[in-house]
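Duplicate of #3305? Posting structure anyway:
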């Protein structure tokens, strides 16, 4: 079975913009409500309550004590389950279509592409890049361990996503602002540097690429080896050399499956199955 994914190259930016504006409005409203203004019926919608990764970090605490980690709500748990079901079906669509921090890195990278042209996204030597891409599993292990032994949301202090939508409040730690600044500068040189090298939630969702239901499949007999799909991939996955993309870094952006990228129709598809 094929999913109708062609010509949706315009759709992803629209969806990304929608979620970016939505999260920004919720974050601003949360501050306004705390100061006595804003839209009160949305007051409970803090960034922590809307973060699916909050559900992941609280699993240990919930299993051992029946309580959530400080500042985490049931909503994070529900969003975590929803995100995981979507990822098992379609891959990490949360990363490619929803996450506002992935979106702002892509926006920053547009400037980097203008500045560095063909050199953009090719600054990190291949051998270093391959190793660095496993760093996010180290970050994940550190976050889970530290959260389990402290019972606190330790990641919030270094989380650039939290810093981005709270930089105007006193809740943000300096470390978070530093990580945010470093990431945005790095995004001028590398596409989605945080996603590739450091994001612990991307590390969790990325594992679903190994067994997801809908897969990115390249039809070898019709492929003309033009390499356009590989060049377009924001995560530098060599799509043109793979029959089925099972790379743990795929963010299911579906750019490679678009007819606006691959010149041969029905050559890269988003399909159920595939060996
Ligand atoms: S392989 Fe395709 S869907 Fe996956 S990240 Fe690359 S371009 Fe996006
Ligand atoms: S863009 Fe299409 S034709 Fe070109 S290498 Fe990729 S799959 Fe093959």
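Output from current build:
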């Amino acid at each position: 079975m094929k999913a109708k994914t062609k010509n949706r190259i315009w759709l992803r930016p629209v969806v990304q913009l929608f979620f970016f504006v939505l999260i920004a409005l919720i974050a601003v409203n949360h501050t306004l409500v705390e100061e006595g203004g804003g839209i009160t019926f949305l007051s409970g919608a803090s960034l922590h309550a809307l973060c699916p990764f909050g559900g992941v970090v609280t699993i240990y605490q919930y299993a051992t004590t029946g309580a959530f980690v400080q500042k985490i709500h049931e909503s994070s748990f529900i969003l975590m389950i929803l995100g995981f079901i979507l990822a098992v079906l379609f891959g990490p669509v949360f990363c490619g279509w929803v996450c506002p921090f992935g979106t702002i890195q892509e926006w920053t990278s547009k400037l980097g592409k203008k500045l560095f042209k063909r050199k953009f996204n090719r600054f990190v030597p291949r051998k270093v890049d391959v190793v660095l891409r496993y760093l996010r599993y180290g970050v994940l292990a550190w976050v889970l361990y530290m959260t389990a032994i402290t019972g606190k949301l330790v990641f919030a202090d270094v989380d650039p996503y939290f810093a981005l939508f709270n930089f105007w409040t006193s809740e943000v730690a300096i470390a978070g602002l530093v990580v945010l600044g470093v990431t945005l500068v790095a995004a001028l040189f590398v596409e989605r540097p945080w996603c590739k090298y450091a994001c612990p939630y991307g590390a969790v969702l990325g594992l679903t690429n190994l067994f997801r239901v809908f897969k990115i499949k390249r039809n070898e007999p019709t492929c003309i080896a033009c390499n356009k799909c590989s060049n377009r991939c924001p995560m530098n996955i060599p799509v043109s050399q793979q029959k089925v993309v099972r790379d743990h870094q795929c963010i299911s952006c579906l750019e490679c499956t678009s007819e606006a990228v691959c010149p041969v129709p029905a050559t890269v598809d988003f399909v159920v199955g595939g060996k």
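Confirmed duplicate; merging threads. DSSP finds 13 helices and two strands in the chain. Residues 216, 232-235, 237, 239, 245, 250-256 surround iron/sulfur cluster (ligand 1) (CB under 6 Å).
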